[in-house]
Design a protein that fits this description.
This protein is α+β, with helices and mostly antiparallel strands. Helix content is about 30%, strand content about 20%. The longest helix has 11 residues. The protein is globular.
Length: about 150
């Protein structure tokens, strides 16, 4: 689940300037990256992440705002939001901070990464029900984290 100010197609292509005035888009890992060799390798396709990495770098430098939240679900056949978020953190030379914080509606924060205007939140849960709880409580998350 991603919350930030640009269209998904712009981020995926990385071909034109990213405008802070484009609409908020919310999407899952399948929209972000496939695997490079075989799905079993769990390797994120770096070419598919170029636009996201570019925006994450701009956010980390304070020029943009990017907030990523994800559950721990690991789907078959494509990169999970955990894996794509980890890819961004690694490319930025960062590390997650381990957390144990209860949030409203039974959500539990397990980890976070903050740098400049970039924030990545890892929430507990690896089932479809956990994923839906995350989605159902999105409005509370946005109020809590998006200015």
């Amino acid at each position: 689940m991603f919350c930030f100010w640009f269209a998904a197609s712009v981020a995926r292509s990385g071909e034109r300037a990213i405008s802070p005035n484009e609409p908020v888009r919310l999407f899952n890992g399948k929209d972000l990256a496939g695997y490079t060799v075989e799905p079993g390798s769990r390797e994120v396709n770096s070419a598919n992440m170029e636009g996201f990495l570019k925006f994450a770098r701009a956010a980390a430098q304070g020029g943009k705002r990017m907030i990523i939240s994800h559950s721990q679900q690991r789907p078959d056949g494509y990169a999970s939001t955990t894996e794509t978020a980890d890819y961004l953190i690694t490319q930025l030379g960062g590390e997650r901070e381990i957390m144990a914080e209860s949030w409203p509606s039974g959500l539990k924060l397990l980890s976070r990464f903050r740098k400049g205007g970039l924030e990545i939140y890892g929430l507990a849960g690896d089932t479809a029900a956990d994923h839906m709880k995350h989605l159902q409580n999105l409005s509370g998350f946005l109020v809590r984290n998006c200015e």
